[in-house]
Design a protein that fits this description.
Shape: globular
Distance between the termini: 59 Å
Structural class: alpha/beta
Mean pLDDT: 94
Largest sheet: 6 strands, parallel
Low-confidence stretches: 1-7
Oligomer: single chain
Number of helices: 10
């Protein structure tokens, strides 16, 4: 008997679009209060190097969210053949700019630039992506300042839906510094939204589907379209799809095969309309936090 035949009901949808809109409305209120109390507007600077189509979309969406929340959004563009030193100089200027509370450098960067060197140049107190080693270290020891936006968005979705992580078996598919590793660290934290027993699967994992089938909560960040099928899913599991891909027909899909998995899982995120919207909401939440920290 296949797994989708034993699930009594199709999965409920974790609606990232609706939740992100509610969070952005709340942030807009915080921005207005902050401006009234301090005379300042929270500022977010985005840096885009080259003309990567996916990066263009991400940055455009981030700029639109900034505007709707009443934040100051700045976009700096550099040519794809710009030197590493040019980007480092720009980061230094943004670090020193009191109007800018949050800095994000859109990844990936061109080959002539060392991504880690650029990340480490950003002021940790303006690192709203949460990638600086200082912020990664704070998360690791349980004292998070800025949590990477996608994992934070996933945790927020779970909490909003009343899905408890305490005592659960969580499996994270993928070990990237952007999603997989910080997601595992976040689920291991003590307290609400954490206290899970976490396994991380990666390219060297033997028989990942059998490990995935043990998960009460499965987070897919493998970077391969629709790799995770119903046979990977424990009936009743919560499935979070972090991936986003464009099919040949132009339609979007995730790392999870939604039609089959939605018949097995208890909850599932759609693509689009799931984790992606939450990532931007968390970026603005981190920027609001950075602005408040700058005033303290």
């Amino acid at each position: 008997m296949s797994y989708h035949e034993v699930s009594p009901l199709p999965a409920r949808i974790l609606d990232g679009k609706a939740l992100s809109e509610a969070i952005l409305a709340k942030i807009a209120g915080e921005v207005a209060d902050f401006k009234a109390q301090t005379g300042q507007v929270p500022g977010l600077a985005a840096v885009l190097v080259g003309e990567n189509p996916a990066s263009e979309v991400y940055v455009r969406n981030k700029q639109a969210a900034c505007k709707s929340a009443g934040m100051f959004g700045r976009l700096d563009r550099l040519a794809s053949d710009a030197s590493e030193s040019t980007l480092l100089d720009l980061v230094d200027r943004l670090n020193a700019d009191p109007q800018i509370h949050g800095i994000l450098v859109q990844l990936p960067l061109p080959k002539q630039m060392d991504e880690q060197k650029i990340i480490e140049r950003i002021d940790p107190k303006k690192d709203v992506d949460g990638f600086h080693p200082e912020n990664v270290g704070l998360l690791t020891i349980g004292r998070p300042r800025f949590v990477p936006c996608t994992p934070l968005g996933v945790q927020t979705m779970l909490l909003s839906a009343g899905i408890s992580t305490t005592g659960t078996k969580a499996v994270v598919l993928g070990r990237s510094n952007i999603v997989g590793k910080p997601m595992a660290l976040l689920l291991m934290q003590k307290g609400i939204g954490g206290d899970a027993t976490v396994t991380v699967c990666h390219t060297a994992t033997k028989d990942a589907p059998s490990i995935a089938r043990e998960a009460d909560i499965l987070i897919a960040a493998v970077g391969k379209p629709e790799q995770v099928t119903a046979e990977w899913i424990k009936p009743g599991a919560v499935v979070i799809d972090v991936g986003i891909h464009r099919r040949d027909n132009g339609k979007l899909c995730g790392d999870v095969h939604f039609p089959s998995v939605s018949e097995v899982a208890s909850w599932i995120t759609p693509v689009p309309g799931g984790v992606g919207k939450m990532t931007i909401a968390m970026l603005l939440q981190n920027t609001m936090r950075a602005a408040k920290l700058a005033m303290s």
